[in-house]
């Protein structure tokens, strides 16, 4: 039987109350574990699991936690008390439960990294491994501050890119809905009217009317087909087959290629610099940074660099074979390696790439607006012609 989480309240031998989450096979097993830690349990309840599994905390939430913990630890507050204080002030949810559980584990003598690692789905693998390396090197406060800044900048970049794409996405969705309504709700009525008056319709009108009648008459079949396609796409997405295809298509478009590669390279460099600053070795840092980039082209280049380092070579020797990195990023990485300032140079590269990607995204949004206007005009023109052409032909016949 797999372990399930239990939320408990307890007091220790000194009468100090504590709240936390513990995982055990049953409620009795959880009670035994807590009793073995010298706690008297006053209440214990099972924590209902989310239907779709645990969800990670948002970058902003994790950034706020890292910053608060850095402040408290630098002020001399014991780690367990600092975690408990942050958990008490956090919003109810999975992050709060994870922090309460971590506070209990630290009190029991575990390291911070091991305590957070029990909820790695909430904090993320990179966060946990960075904390582990920082604890070993004695740079915990510095690593926490660096993590907070990194996560905050990543969230700012994500929000900027999202805001630049919201308008085009909304326009496309509304346009698609309008086209569906016109095709399914309007065109069949005009088709019936033309048929009743024996008006010959052109191919465009006949196609739209046929599609509309098909959807109205066999809507259940269309729904089943769309549901089947959605299920297949969902399974392919879970297996990681959809995203590489989407990336490959988008990377063929020059403006999107620059934005996507810039964003992925910035994420790679920022995580690489963060891991190196925290004390991780270069190979492990490359592995984590490559996985965090979320773009196959950058991941392939990260693996290429890792193979070079593993063979005893220098990063600069293999960078010319890494097309996902811009010439500026390659030169800065080479300079950082030569000056033994690779982590610092990675942060400078990330700042530059994020700034450039955000600027291009805003420009692209402005350029797309005329294209969207043309697209809307074209759709309206097609529907208008499908309705007006039969009437026009009918009027010409009457005039003759």
Provide the descriptors you would attach to this structure in a database record.
400 residues, mainly alpha, Receptor-associated Protein
Structure description:
It contains 17 helices and 3 strands. The protein has 400 residues and is mostly helical. Among the domains are: 1-49, Roll (Ubiquitin-like (UB roll)), CATH 3.10.20; 257-357, Type II secretion system (T2SS), domain F (Receptor-associated Protein), CATH 1.20.81.30. It has a 3-stranded antiparallel sheet with strand order 2-1-3. Helix 13 (282-293) packs antiparallel against helix 14 (296-310). Mean pLDDT is 80; it is low at 49-54.
How are the secondary structure elements laid out?
Elements: E1 4-11, E2 17-24, H1 27-36, E3 40-46, H2 59-74, H3 79-89, H4 94-107, H5 112-117, H6 120-123, H7 125-137, H8 140-196, H9 203-217, H10 219-238, H11 242-250, H12 254-278, H13 282-293, H14 296-310, H15 315-318, H16 327-338, H17 342-399
Antiparallel strand pairs: 1-2, 1-3
Would you kindly provide a brief summary of this structure?
The protein is built from 17 helices and 3 strands.
